[in-house]
Design goal:
There is one protein chain. Helix 2 packs across helix 3 and helix 6 packs across helix 7. The chain has a single domain, classed as Alpha/Beta hydrolase fold, catalytic domain (Rossmann fold). The chain is an alpha/beta fold. The radius of gyration is 17 Å and the shape is globular.
Length: 274
């Protein structure tokens, strides 16, 4: 994988992992919170044999710019995707999204369907009726005064375990991959809470708009996700009439970490079929 920094037309500097032949169809992988483009590291090598894979760190995440004046809402994140497409002169590309990247990606699919070839959606929140437990967790995580506590290595690991079906996957190496980008500077720590500051009502498209998505869509969902339960996947499948739904057993929210081989096979089957 090549690690590069792409300066967008908006002047945002976006850290991006790339791999593959540039003459192959482009495939964009968007992660969510609190991860980075490294979330896709197990999938990129095989995907890059057929696609030109671009895996950016979202603004505010990983090694990308973390503008302190930004409001990390749907408009901003959707605008980032469009800016990324335009800067790289991507007329059309496959798009695969997860979590926060999924919210932004669904909005992009609603507003700019002509820029997407095939669309893959993984464990995200297309709807604003988040559970009380999830709202309470986010309320705590976005408090600046508690940021240092949550970024403590032990505490961070315990919180991260909630995203996994098999807690044994949460090794010290995994913790470092997720935690390190938030700990290197005050700006990193501020972004940890700022990227969660927007209420769910401002992070989703109208449900009627989602129902108008007419793209070839694959919904891949970890069946044991405690944050975004599988019933959300069923609702999204009902709303996007052109979608197929595949449950990923023995996987929680971070299905890319727990079931990469299964996900890879499903992605390749979907992306390469006519």
């Amino acid at each position: 994988m090549e690690s590069r920094t792409i300066t967008l037309k908006s002047n945002l500097k976006i850290h991006t992992l790339t791999q593959g032949d540039k003459t192959h169809p482009p495939l964009i992988l968007l992660h969510g919170w609190p991860s980075s483009g490294l979330l896709w590291r197990h999938l990129i090598p095989e995907l890059s044999k057929r696609f030109y894979v671009l895996t950016p760190d979202l603004p505010g995440h990983g090694r990308s710019d973390k503008p302190e004046t930004a409001r990390y809402d749907l408009d901003f994140l959707r605008g980032f995707i469009l800016d990324f497409w335009d800067t790289l002169d991507l007329k059309k590309a496959h798009l695969c999204v997860h979590d926060l990247g999924g919210m932004a990606g669904l909005s992009f699919a609603v507003r700019y369907p002509q820029r997407i070839d095939k669309f893959i959606v993984m464990n995200t929140s297309p709807y604003s009726d988040w559970s009380l437990a999830l709202r309470a967790s986010i309320f705590l995580l976005k408090q600046n005064l508690l940021t240092r506590l949550f970024l403590n290595r032990f505490v961070f690991r315990q919180v991260l375990k909630n995203g996994f079906y098999d807690k044994e996957w949460v090794t010290p190496d995994i913790v470092d991959i997720f935690r390190a980008p938030w700990t290197e500077s005050k700006q990193d720590r501020n972004a940890f809470s700022a990227t969660l500051a927007v209420p769910p009502e401002l992070m989703v498209e109208n449900r009627e708009a989602l129902r108008k998505i007419n793209l070839p869509t694959l919904i891949l969902w970890g069946r044991k996700d405690v944050f975004f339960p599988f019933k959300i996947a069923r609702l999204l499948h009902e709303d996007i009439k052109t979608s197929s739904l595949v449950a990923v057993d023995k996987a929680g929210h971070f299905l890319q970490e727990e079931q990469p081989e299964f996900i890879l096979l499903e992605m390749l089957k979907f992306l390469t079929q006519r």
